[in-house]
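#lab-general

N.A. 3:47 PM
ok so I finally got the sequence cleaned up, no stray characters, all 62 residues accounted for. can someone with queue access submit it? mine expired

B.Y. 3:52 PM
send it over

N.A. 3:53 PM
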Amino acid sequence: MFNRIRQFFIDVQAEFKRIQWATRERTIRQTSIVVLVSLIIAIYLGVADLGLSNLMQLLISG
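B.Y. 4:20 PM
back already:
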């Protein structure tokens, strides 16, 4: 039982050594892209919401 658990952790350690981690520069670049795209989508949705809200107010007020 304990040998299987021990072997599991040995295998996990071996797998971690085979992982190809991203460089710091690549991580920063990809994070920047995600933040930029998120901001663009948020601005787009905000403008669309504002426009639709104004349109609804115009239709309701007659």
